[in-house]
């Protein structure tokens, strides 16, 4: 306790001494221009350096204030520029989306012209089963738009699949790559018929399998077009499925089988066309 009181007394003496020094320096500053002799020398040695120091401190503080204001202004400008950059990025993304959508719609229009003999309804894909591939998916058109079960669905450059379920404003489509899909097809150049079977394990390598093609004198070459057959009970004739990528004679020497590269990108489906007439309605023959 005694030591604490001594420290407090010492601090008071220091404070008093510094205060006295400041007063003396202020007096010297006031009278420095009027005095002569030793007092003049003392003033020059003490007051003037102090004045210069105080002046420099004032200038430094002024510069700091200016720098702070400049920094605030720069930060504000940066925020404004960042907002403009964000707006431009959003605008650029929107333009990119519009560009890609335009390209898809142009492709869809070209497909529509390729099958101009069929009436069609355009639809957007709004849902799909789990997995990377559009084996089964939902579109935003239904019975209110004239959609019925067994209507053929096309996109890209050819056949996607067939409508399996219909609601008032939606429909479910099963694509030709689905494991439960079987499509009657034929080689466009020779009319040799075959069965195209869906297989999700194969589509990972970008192909689907065909089977039961008669082993005859007709030569089926790589790159031949495979289209839907006229004997199909649900699929309309002549819709492009894909191109032969491999063909071989089966062990029974009676049939041939192989693989097709499909013309539809089953990993990226956003818009499709639904042909609004079923095979049954066109032929008058009920589907089996």
Describe this structure in words.
- The structure is a single chain.
- By secondary structure, the protein is of the alpha+beta class.
- The protein has a domain at 120-280: Beta Barrel (Thrombin, subunit H), CATH 2.40.10.340.
- It contains 4 helices and 12 strands, in the order ααβββββββαβββββα.
- It has a 6-stranded antiparallel β-barrel with strand order 1-2-5-4-3-12. Strands 6-7-8-11-10-9 form a 6-stranded antiparallel beta barrel.
- Strand 1 and strand 2 form a beta hairpin.
- The N and C termini lie far apart (109 Å).
**Strand order, biggest sheet?**
1-2-5-4-3-12
Give the strand tally.
12
Which H/E pattern describes the elements?
HHEEEEEEEHEEEEEH
Radius of gyration: 44 Å
- Helical content stands at 40-55%
Contiguous runs where pLDDT drops below 50 for at least 5 residues: none
Helix-strand makeup class: alpha+beta
Task: Specify the CATH homologous superfamily of the domain at 120-280.
Answer: Rod shape-determining protein MreC, domain 1
The CATH architecture of the domain at 120-280 is Beta Barrel
Main beta-sheet strand count, sense and barrel state: 6 strands, antiparallel, barrel
Q: How many helix segments?
A: 4
CATH topology category name of the domain at 120-280: Thrombin, subunit H
């Amino acid at each position: 306790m005694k030591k604490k009181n001594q420290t407090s007394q010492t601090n008071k003496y220091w404070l008093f001494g510094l205060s006295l020094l400041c007063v003396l320096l202020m007096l010297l500053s006031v009278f420095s221009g009027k005095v002569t002799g030793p007092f003049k020398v003392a003033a020059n040695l003490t007051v003037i350096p102090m004045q210069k120091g105080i002046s420099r401190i004032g200038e430094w503080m002024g510069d700091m204030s200016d720098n702070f204001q400049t920094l605030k202004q720069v930060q504000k400008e940066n925020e404004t520029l960042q907002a403009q950059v964000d707006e431009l990025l959003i605008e650029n993304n929107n333009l990119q989306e519009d560009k890609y959508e335009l390209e898809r719609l142009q492709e869809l229009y070209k497909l529509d012209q390729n099958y101009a003999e069929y009436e069609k309804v355009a639809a957007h894909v709004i849902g799909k089963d789990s997995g990377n591939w559009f084996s089964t998916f939902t579109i935003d058109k239904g019975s209110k738009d004239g959609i019925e079960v067994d209507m053929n669905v096309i996109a890209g450059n050819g056949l996607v699949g067939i409508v399996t379920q219909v609601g008032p404003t939606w429909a479910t489509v099963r694509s030709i790559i689905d494991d439960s899909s079987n499509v009657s097809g034929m080689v466009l150049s020779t009319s040799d018929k075959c069965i195209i079977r869906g297989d999700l394990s194969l589509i990972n390598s970008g192909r689907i399998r065909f089977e039961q093609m008669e082993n005859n004198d007709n030569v089926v070459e790589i790159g031949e077009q495979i289209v839907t057959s006229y004997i199909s009970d649900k699929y309309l004739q002549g819709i492009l499925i894909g191109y032969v990528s491999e063909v071989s004679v089966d062990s029974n020497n009676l049939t041939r089988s192989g693989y097709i590269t499909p013309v539809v990108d089953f990993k990226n489906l956003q818009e499709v066309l639904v042909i609004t007439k079923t095979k049954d309605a066109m032929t008058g023959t009920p589907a089996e």
